[in-house]
Amino acid sequence: MHTSASSIVSLTHFLTEGVLTEQYVLENIDALLDCIRTANVTIRWTILHSRMQETIPMMNHSGDQRRVFDKGTDPDRLVTLLLQTSQLEWKLKHEFERLLAAKEDRWQHCINETCDRLSELSEYFTGEKPLTRVERNEDLIKWFADTSAKVASLDYVNHVKAGRRIKRLIEALGHVEQFDQIDTSLQVKAFLSESRAYLTEMVRTVRVRPEVMGIIEAVSDLSYAWEIINDFMSILHTRVKRDPSCVILLRALFLKLASILDVPLTRIYQCKSSDVISVAEYYSGEIVDYV
């Protein structure tokens, strides 16, 4: 299938050593989520259709459809897609857990660094700082002080609103750099450039949201394949014998299979039943036996 082939190409790129850096993940989260979403849709459709019967009552041309399916799909390629998708999901979850844990500190650090620079620029244009020969400019004093206050008031509760406010501040810092009194000072321009860099880092940081983890969990669900996955065990065994390094990918696949626990436990959690622990232990044991 064309979709599976293109997904494997994208997955191979993202999983290449050195690609999934912190900055790359922050700048390309939409593309990464789209990749695992498309891959999981392809996996789900292919796996669920893999048990389509040659003859289905009340359905014409079922045999033809089965032959078309067999001709257009490759079980070995499906296993490759499944392994690589599981690995990318695991890496994204791991990276986002780390980013979420550091989000508050990163956000506050960027605010402090930006405010310090803008406050210094406000003081600079008073003309009263030692070793500065600059004409006092009341407008710039007030503008930098006000901008520093705006930065200090930023929060990421509403990520859309925060992102827009930060982008407007970045544009404003770019425009003020065109003033003659600023354009001729390399030190001031350096401070403005550093301030914009910290604000840009805040734009990236504001996109680190718990909802992203929820999206990954939802699209990576593999509970529907709890039984059907056995049909592909021989391919997995052959793959491991041929290339033992595939065991690393199998770890991510088994973690993906753990989503089977979500199905029986969802309603039990909702009704706050005392059976939740025993049911979780039972299905955990089943997964361990399966592995």
Automatic annotation (TrEMBL):
One GO cellular component term noted in the UniProt record for this chain: endosome
Signal peptide residue numbers: none
Annotated GO biological process: actin filament polymerization; endosome fission; endosome organization; regulation of actin nucleation
Family classification: Belongs to the strumpellin family.
Protein name (Swiss-Prot/TrEMBL): Uncharacterized protein
